C-alpha cells in the first residue's frame, strides 16, 4: 500500500488527502493544528513543518511528500524560505518524490496566455519568493514537481472571490472587489487542484517541471452572476474597489496591503493555459456550475 505525507490542512490539502485515501492509499496530514478530514486511512499529526528533524521522521518510508502549506500572506518573504528549506531537506534526506502546490505569481506581469514554460520574471517580493522556492527545489536534485493554481474557487476555497464576492452575491448585498469587473480572469477549482496534485505525483513525466491546474476563464462579474443565479439570488450589484478602499482595509488586516503586487495590469486578461496538464496528466476542468453548486 502506498503512503504519503501532506503538509497543510486547508481545502486543497484535505481534498488531496481524500482522493488518495479513497484509492486505498495511506495519508499522514501534518499541520500545526492537526486538522484534516476524517477517514480511516488519514492520520492527522500536529507538528511544525519548519522542524526539519521532526518532518524528516514523519516522512521516512512514504512514497510522496506533498506541500500545500504557506505562511501568512504578508510574511511570505521572511517565512516561506524557511518552510521551503525544511520541506526540501526532508525530501532530500528521505528520497521521496516531492509535489509542491504553487501559483502564477512567479511569472510576474504577462501579456497573453500564461504557459508553464514562461520565465519567472516577477520583481515583487511575493512573486520573487515563489520563484525562489521553485528554483531552489528544481536545482536540488530532488525528484520534484510544482502544480500552479490560479485564484481558487469552490467549496472551502480561501481567495479574493470567496472572501469578497461569494457570500455577498448569494445574500444580494453590494459586492466590492479589488479587480476589474469585466476583464477575463482564470479561476482554479479546489477539486481540480487536488486532482492535478495527485495526477502529477503518479506520472514520472511530471517531475522536473511545473504544471498548471485546469482553470475556467471568465470575468468576476460573470462568475458572481452565475453563482447568484444558481443560488436563487438577485443579479449582484458590483463595484471595483479603489486604492483608498484597499488602503483603509489594510489598517484592519495586513493581507489587504499585499494586494497591490498581485493585481493584474489594467485591461489585461489573466488567462492560464493548462493544455499540457489535460494532455499529459489527463486532468480536465470541472464545469463552473458544478463547482459553484458545491459552494451553494
UniProtKB/TrEMBL annotation:
<dbReference type="InterPro" id="IPR001509">
    <property type="entry name" value="Epimerase_deHydtase"/>
</dbReference>
<dbReference type="Pfam" id="PF01370">
    <property type="entry name" value="Epimerase"/>
</dbReference>
<feature type="domain" description="NAD-dependent epimerase/dehydratase">
    <location>
        <begin position="9"/>
        <end position="205"/>
    </location>
</feature>
<protein>
    <submittedName>
        <fullName>NAD-dependent epimerase/dehydratase family protein</fullName>
    </submittedName>
</protein>
<dbReference type="InterPro" id="IPR036291">
    <property type="entry name" value="NAD(P)-bd_dom_sf"/>
</dbReference>
Amino acid at each position: 500500500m502506498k503512503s504519503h505525507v501532506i503538509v497543510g490542512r486547508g481545502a486543497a490539502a484535505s481534498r488531496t488527502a481524500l482522493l488518495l485515501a479513497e484509492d486505498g492509499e495511506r495519508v499522514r496530514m501534518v499541520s500545526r493544528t492537526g486538522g484534516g478530514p476524517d477517514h480511516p486511512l488519514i492520520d492527522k499529526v500536529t507538528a511544525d513543518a519548519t522542524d526539519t528533524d521532526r518532518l524528516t521522521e514523519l516522512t521516512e518510508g512514504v512514497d510522496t511528500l506533498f506541500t500545500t502549506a504557506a505562511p501568512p500572506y504578508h510574511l511570505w518573504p521572511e517565512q516561506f524560505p524557511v518552510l521551503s528549506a525544511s520541506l526540501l531537506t526532508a525530501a532530500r534526506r528521505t528520497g521521496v518524490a516531492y509535489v509542491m502546490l504553487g501559483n502564477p505569481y512567479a511569472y510576474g506581469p504577462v501579456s497573453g496566455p500564461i504557459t508553464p514554460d514562461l520565465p519567472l520574471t516577477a520583481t515583487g517580493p511575493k512573486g520573487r519568493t515563489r520563484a525562489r522556492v521553485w528554483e531552489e527545489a528544481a536545482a536540488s536534485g530532488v525528484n520534484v514537481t510544482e502544480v500552479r493554481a490560479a485564484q481558487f474557487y469552490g467549496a472551502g476555497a480561501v481567495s479574493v472571490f470567496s472572501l469578497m464576492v461569494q457570500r455577498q452575491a448569494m445574500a444580494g448585498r453590494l459586492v466590492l472587489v479589488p479587480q476589474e469587473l469585466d476583464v477575463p480572469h482564470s479561476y482554479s477549482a479546489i477539486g481540480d487542484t487536488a486532482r492535478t496534485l495527485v495526477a502529477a505525483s503518479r506520472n514520472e513525466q511530471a517531475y522536473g517541471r511545473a504544471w498548471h491546474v485546469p482553470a475556467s476563464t471568465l470575468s468576476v462579474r460573470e462568475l458572481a452572476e452565475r453563482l447568484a443565479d444558481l443560488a436563487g439570488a438577485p443579479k449582484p450589484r458590483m463595484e471595483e474597489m479603489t486604492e483608498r478602499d484597499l488602503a483603509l482595509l489594510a489598517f484592519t488586516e495586513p493581507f489587504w496591503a499585499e494586494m497591490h503586487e498581485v493585481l493584474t495590469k489594467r485591461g489585461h486578461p489573466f488567462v492560464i493555459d493548462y493544455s499540457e496538464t489535460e494532455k499529459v496528466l489527463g486532468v480536465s476542468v470541472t464545469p463552473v456550475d458544478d463547482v459553484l453548486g458545491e459552494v451553494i
